[in-house]
Amino acid sequence: MKKSIQDYNVNNKRILVRCDFNIPLNDKGEITDDSRIKAALPTIEYIIKNGGKPVLMSHLGRPKGIADPKLSLKPVAERLEKLTNKDVVFSDHDDVVNNEVVELSKKDFDKILLIQNTRFRKEEKENNDKFAEELSKLGDVFINDAFGTSHRAHASNVGVAKYLESGLGFLVKKEVEIIGEVLKNPKKPLVALLGGAKVSDKINVIDNLLNIADKIIIGGGMAFTFVAAQGYEVGKSILEKDKINLAKELMEKAEEKNVDLVLPVDYKVAEEFRNDTEWKTVSFDNIPIDYMGLDIGEKTIKLFSKLLQEAETVIWNGPMGVFEFDNFAEGTNKICQVLAENDIISIIGGGDSAAAVKKAGLEDKMTHISTGGGASLEFMEGKKLPGIEIIEDK
Does domain 5-172 have CATH number 3.30.300.180? Predict the structure, then answer.
């Protein structure tokens, strides 16, 4: 078990926290969704309440090691002030950390310090030791509260932990405990619902879940590779031809392990990839050659809904169709409703699944929505995440 922030006396100490403030901004540089900032508040408020000074760091976007004013964390500092009712000092230094910033970290314990975008330095993604050591001078204890980047070994989450005592923040601790418990000791029946565009993104997840799931339901664009693996036409639907044999192997493996691998029985198909195109519903084995599948059909929605209602635990990662188009969001939306309306332990992987739940306004009806798309996928694959592994054990 890893140490957490609660294992340290934070009083009169600088607590260097790696947050995930990689939030969406519009063309004017305004925040369009502050949920990641709100997710960091329990850890920040705990530090303040217990007499410590929060020194916060995060990346934003992909500045490629160059200072980009459009990707400054200044809007985050302004939003943090409103959310915490505390003064937030923003260190607007393009080199992220220097002697002046270190001195700032030692002053004004009644204020929060937020440093500039860590990816303004190319050494961040290189997990450069020198940069990590520079960052470590900003704190007395390091806390990783950015689950979304825990699958990456960067200077601000892995490198810095070599120089300071370390622990997990409340956000990461919750992710590790909830997803970890489901993977180790799930309430059965466990149903895994996997969607999204590509099988290649989910191969290892399927492989790992075959050891613990009772059923694996596959929808979204990745299902067409399984349809093709059975010898059927998929038309202009998304298809990974080089993964057809792999899809066959996964189906065989599921049969060997006595796990039901369930595929759509019908699809909404159209000739064009746009919301207002005309569409029709066809059987999975009757997709016209000049059509593409954009959502699961009514029969599939009923089938998937029934299987989910019979589950005790559901892990969901990936939409059922092109949910960004309202005309092809029905499958994804119905899944959201079934999980919200039934007494099911629902674990939602980050990324598009989380976006779909949010769009449907059903966030508070889910057991847990992961804050990290790539990180939650790798965690479900059974991989060890560098940003968590580096943290001190109890």
Answer: no
Q: How far apart are CA 326 and CA 328, in angstroms?
A: 5
Active-site entry in 111, 198, 248, 358: 198
374 catalytically annotated: yes
In the numeric block, which tokens belong to residue 62? 């992909």
Which of these is catalytic: 349, 351, 372, 373?
A: 351
Question: What CATH number has the domain spanning 186-380?
Answer: 3.40.50.1260
Hey, what are 393's tokens? 């054990």
36 is catalytic: yes
pTM: 0.88
Range(s) of the chain covered by CATH 3.40.50.1260: 5-172, 186-380
Residue 216, strand partner residues = 192, 261
The sheet carrying 292-296 orders its strands as: 279-283, 266-270, 292-296
pLDDT digits (tens, 9 = 90+) for 217-250: 999 999 999 999 999 999 999 999 999 999 999 9
Catalytic residue, candidates 61, 65, 374, 382: 374
